[in-house]
Each structure stands twice: as structure tokens, then as C-alpha cells.
Amino acid sequence: MKKLLFSLLFLFPALLFAQNAQNPSDPKYLADAFSYKNGKMYIERKLDVAELNAAQIRTVIGDWLKERYKGENDRVIEPTDQSDSYIVQASEKIRVKIGLFGSNVNFVYNLLITYSDAQCTLQFRGMRFSNNPFSKSPAEFVTAEEYLTEKNSLNKDKTRVSAGIGTYRMGVIDKADEIALDAQKFIDISFKNLVRNNEVSSNAVATAATATAAAATVAAATVKDASVSAAHATTNAATTAANATAKAATTAANTTTNAARTAASTVKDASVTAAGATASAAGAVASKVSSAAKKATEGVKNAVTEKPENTIVSAECVKMIKAGGAAITAVGGKKLGKPVFGNAKYTKLGGTEVIMYKNAANEDNINLLLDMAETFEISIFDGSNRIATFKCKKAESLDDSVMGEVVSKL
Q1: Residues spanned by CATH 3.30.530.80 within the chain?
Q2: What angle do CA 295, 298, 304 make, to 5 degrees?
Q3: Rounded-to-10 torsion of CA 171, 176, 180, 185
Q4: What backbone phi and psi angles, to 5 degrees, belong to 121?
Q5: What are the tens digits of pLDDT across the range 54-84?
Q6: What is the distance between the alpha carbons of residues 362 and 355, in angstroms, rounded to a whole number?
Q7: What integer is the mean pLDDT of 270-294?
Q8: Poorest-pLDDT segment among 98-107, 239-248, 372-381
Q9: Superfamily per CATH, domain 315-409
Q10: Is 6 helix (H, G, I), strand (E, B) or coil?
């Protein structure tokens, strides 16, 4: 009886596979389904956006994200002027089968969406699972690197997904396909609407052009009539103006002659007075110039002897960094809801200023955000007072730390 029971337990996962639409031998589940970057697994899906430019893709993807990611724990970081990418933090349910029973586990992931003209890629990163059947606590996380590798989830020949843990691998791949298909359908519908709107706009433009042409014809006739009337009026006005001008010119000539005589006398007197004032002022200016030149010479001398300041991060900020006053305040150009403090270190590598930041607790998933972004901002605090903020370009990302090259002070 016991032998029969053990045999049934051994065969049960295979029976579960048979009842499910998933085919454990399907090539999409096997080798090369996942890629690696810095030892971390990720999976990519490309969308068909051949007819769209970058601006259109950004708009359509933004609308799709608003429709799909509405959960309380979902978070969408929109692109900035410096980056063409969306970052999403989300959680989905996937179905797995461990032992005799199937269960739903939480599939938590970061979705990096990059785009350019006629191109758009979805990249699922930072993948992990909670509410696992055999975890000590539902909140305990198991990483993709523990469950999804070919060694752990495929048979030795890599021709079939293993029962049990292998269902995590199939669940993630199917979820990535589902999300990509959902995005593609949304894009296709949006593109059709865009084409339809363009057609409507083209018809409206044609109608407006016809109306404008008709209006132009009427306006031309009106202008012609008005021009004839204006010509007659202008001729009469010109004759009257000529007569008035001749008379005014005679009067003005007489007045100008008298004014010129008076002005010549006044200028002569003013010239004598100005000459005296100018001589006095010149002496004062010469004295001031001499004094200023002396001060400038001393300033140049001091500037040459002083050591030039060629660092972005001041000594005061370095001191505060050592005291634990460094916090990430923006990632990928997007401000965080609150500063996320961590252990930081300032150093110079070959003349390049570098700040290393570490948050072992991964507060607010900060490590995952930093892993996906190319830039971040780190602020330096003295107590509760922010004394400076620096923009950093990510140079390297590790499990729980990131190294950034200091680019500028904000």
C-alpha cells in the first residue's frame, strides 16, 4: 500500500502538467528564455510599433500603463526629458504547483519600458516571489535566481521543464507574454484610432481650404473696390497736404534761423564751463583708477597663490556624508515621496568624484529602482536641513549598493 502511495505522489506532478494547457516541453520555456545582467535574471518582450514615432509610443504606453497598473502597490515612474523609458513596480498572481497542490503566488517585478522611433521593449527585472507554499512566512521572498535558472527548473537534458519549481518558470514566461500581448492590443487599437483621426483631420483641412478659397475671392473683389476709392481719396489728400506743407516750411525756416543764432551763443558759454569741469573730473578718475589697479594686482597675486577649488562636492558635504546624512531623493529624474537615507561614501577615482550608496534593508525598493535607472540624485542633510543635492550618473550596480559618478550640483 505504501509503495502504491509513493508511486502516486511521484506521478501526481506529471498528472497536473497533463491537466494544464502548459506544455513543459514547449521551446519557449526551455534554454535561453531568460537573460542575465550583473548576475540578475531578466526577460524581454518586443512590441510591434513600426508605424509610430517615439512621441506617439510614449503617449500610447503611458495610456496603457494607466489602464493596466491601477493596484494599490503598483507604481509607475514616467519618463523625463533626459530618458526615454518608463519604470513600473508591480505585483501579479501566477499559478504554481508544488507537490500535490496548486497555489497562487505573488510575482513581484520591475518593468523597464524603453522606446525610440519604431521600437519598444518590455524588460522584466528584479523578479521575486512571495506567498510561496513552503516559505516560513507569506511575506518571505524567493528570488528568480533561486527558482528560475535552467539548473533548478529544467531537466538535465534541458528538454523539459521540471515539475514543481519548474512551474514558476512557466508562470513567469506566460505572464510576460500576457502583459506584452495586452500592451500590443492596446497599441494596435490606439494606432487605428490615430489613423482614423488623421483621416478626419484631412477631410476637415480640405473643407477649410475650400471655404478659405471662396472667402479669398470675395475678399479680393472687396479689396479691389476699396483700392479705387482709396486712390481717389489719397490724391485729394496729397494735394491739400502739399499746399499746407509749403506754407509751414517757410515759417519753419525763419524760426530755425533765429534759434540757430541763440544756440551758437549758448554753446560757446557751455564749452568754457565744461572744459573746466572735465579737467577736474579727469584728476579724480585718474586717482580712482590708480587705486583700483593696485587692488586688482593684489587680487591676482592672491588668486595665483591660492589652491583652486575643482571639486563638485564640498568638504562640508563630505563631512555630512560620513555622518550618515546622505539620502536618495530622485531616481531617473523622478522625485521620491521622501528621502531614503542609507550608508554612503565619497571618494575620487582617477580624478572622478564618486559617491557609493548602500541601503541593505532595500527601503521602499530603492535598490530595485536604482538598478533600473541610469541617473539618481543624492541629497546631503545636516540634521533635517538639506544643504546640497548632487546629480549622479550610475557607474555600477550591485546587490544592495550603487556607485554613481557625480555629474553636477543642483
Answers
A1: 9-202
A2: 140
A3: 20
A4: -125, 135
A5: 999 999 999 999 999 998 889 898 887 667 8
A6: 18
A7: 42
A8: 239-248
A9: Electron Transport, Fmn-binding Protein; Chain A (2.30.110.10)
A10: helix
Partners of 101 in the beta sheet? 98
Residue 249 has pLDDT above 80, yes or no: no
173: nearest Cα among 64, 17, 45: 45
Tell me if 58 sits within 8 A of 80, measured CB to CB: no
Fold of 9-202: Alpha-D-Glucose-1,6-Bisphosphate; Chain A, domain 4 (3.30.530)
The CATH 2.30.110.10 portion of the chain extends over 315-409
Give the E-state strand segments of 223-342 in sequence order.
326-331, 334-341
* Calpha distance 190→59 (Å, rounded): 10
* DSSP assignment of 310-378: --SS-HHHHHHHHTT-EEEEEETTEEEEEEEE-EEEEEEETTEEEEEEE-TT-GGGHHHHHHH-SEEEE
Higher-confidence position of 91 and 257? 91
Q: What is the pLDDT of residues 286-300, one digit of tens each?
A: 454 345 445 544 543
What is the rounded CA–CA span in Å between residue 100 and residue 387? Answer: 59
- pLDDT number for residue 35: 95
Please tell me the predicted confidence (pLDDT) of residue 313.
Answer: 92
Whether the model clears a pTM of 0.70, i.e. scores above it, the answer is no
Q: Quick one: which of 29, 42, 25 has its CA closest to 145?
A: 42
Q: What is the structure's pLDDT at 45?
A: 96
Residue 27 is given by DSSP the state G
- What are the cell numbers at 326? 546622505
CB contact at 8 A, 128 and 89: no
| Helices 54-68 and 166-305, packing angle to 10 deg | 120
How many angstroms from the chain centroid is the CA of residue 357? 21
- Taking alpha carbons only, the member of 371, 281, 283 closest to residue 331 is 371
Q: Between 176 and 80, where is the model more confident?
A: 176
Judged against a pLDDT cut of 60, whether residue 330 lies above it is answered with: yes
